[in-house]
Amino acid sequence: MTAKTRRQKAALASQTGENDTLPSGNGSVKNQLEKDASPVAQDDMKENVFLFAPNLIGYSRIVLTVASLYYMPLHPRTCSLLYSVSCLLDALDGYAARYFNQSTTFGAILDMVTDRCTTACLLVFLSSAWPRWAIIFQSLISLDLASHYMHMYATLSMGGANQSHKKIDSSRSRVLYYYYHSRVVLFVCCALNELFFIGLYLLSFSSPTLSPSLLEPVADDQPSLQPGTLANSLFTSPWSAGALELARANKIDSRIPWVITAISAPVMAFKQFVNVVQIVKASKWLVEGDLANRKALRSVKKA
């Protein structure tokens, strides 16, 4: 074989190898690159759930809540405004989740935990404002946390990891079904429940009926440092107990807080009833699971 013939065969083999590497069919490298750039591959890209719109709203609620806690001891108007905006955003994050198709388990847990902690912080302040009724506020905190935790846990363990705690079968509880099924009912109950506690908070700054020490007079023949006295010498620190009493005394008019509290009281009572139903139904659902597991275990042992 001559050198020319060998060169021709080598060129032919090289051309054939290139064609095998880049065929014109579906398995070509070019088509593979186009496939990798397809919308399906782009959908497989990792999303940052932490930066979803409803979760960003949840973070802003936390910031507003912390700010309201900062102003809570001495500035009732500022605190009430910040706290109310945080509560109203609770409805906006759900709308954003549905609008942007960004409903996530993390977002649902973030929303529920924020609600529970926000209410608990306000009730803690009310416990300090009215120590005589502290046991009632402590009971409300415990009931709220326990009912939602048990309901969430029962839903996840018995209904499945992808089951929402707001999807209630009417056969299990008609009260919870109507409570969670209607967004309007859920929003009104949660909003007026928070409004009731905001009203009580404002009354702690304005109502001598509930807090007689706010307007307790001091006789002329009494020493200036008596309980209930608003002596300037007590207020060297703006965060002292005496400064708190001074900030509360005659700070705001009590008529509007009384109206807010009276209007929202029935809804608050209904919300606590729902919490009781929720904890009872969750307990029964968990017990059903325990009995089913024990029955299955006995069957395995007999076999």
Describe it.
The protein is globular. The protein has a domain at about 50-160 and about 175-210 and about 245-300: Up-down Bundle (Four Helix Bundle (Hemerythrin (Met), subunit A)). The chain is mainly α and about 300 residues long. Residues about 15-30 and about 220-235 have low confidence and may be disordered. Helix 4 (about 55-70) packs antiparallel against helix 5 (about 75-100), helix 5 runs antiparallel to helix 9 and helix 6 runs antiparallel to helix 7 (about 135-160). The protein starts with a helix and ends with a helix. About 70% of the residues lie in helices and about 0% in strands. It is found in: Membrane. Belongs to the CDP-alcohol phosphatidyltransferase class-I family.
Helices and strands in order:
Blueprint: H1 3-21, H2 29-36, H3 39-43, H4 53-71, H5 76-99, H6 105-129, H7 134-159, H8 174-181, H9 183-203, H10 241-248, H11 255-302
Helix pairs in contact: 4-5, 4-6, 5-9, 6-7, 6-9, 7-11, 9-11
Structural class: mainly alpha
How much strand? under 5%
Task: Please tally the helical runs, counting DSSP H or I stretches of 4 or more residues.
Answer: 11
Largest sheet: none
Gap between N and C termini: 81 Å
Radius of gyration, in angstroms, nearest whole number: 32 Å
Mean of all residue-level pLDDT scores: 80
Q: What's the SSE pattern? A: HHHHHHHHHHH
Give the helix proportion (percent range): 55-70%
- What ranges have pLDDT less than 50 throughout 5 or more consecutive residues? 17-30, 222-235
CATH top-level class of the domain at 49-158 and 174-211 and 246-301: Mainly Alpha
Count of beta strands: 0
Q: Write down the overall geometry.
A: globular
Q: Please tell me the CATH architecture of the domain at 49-158 and 174-211 and 246-301 by its name.
A: Up-down Bundle
Looking at CATH, which topology of the domain at 49-158 and 174-211 and 246-301 would you report? Answer: Four Helix Bundle (Hemerythrin (Met), subunit A)
Please identify which CATH superfamily of the domain at 49-158 and 174-211 and 246-301 we are dealing with.
CDP-alcohol phosphotransferase transmembrane (TM) domain
GO cellular component, one term: Golgi apparatus
Membrane topology: Multi-pass membrane protein
GO biological process, one term: phosphatidylinositol biosynthetic process
Region (Disordered): 1-38
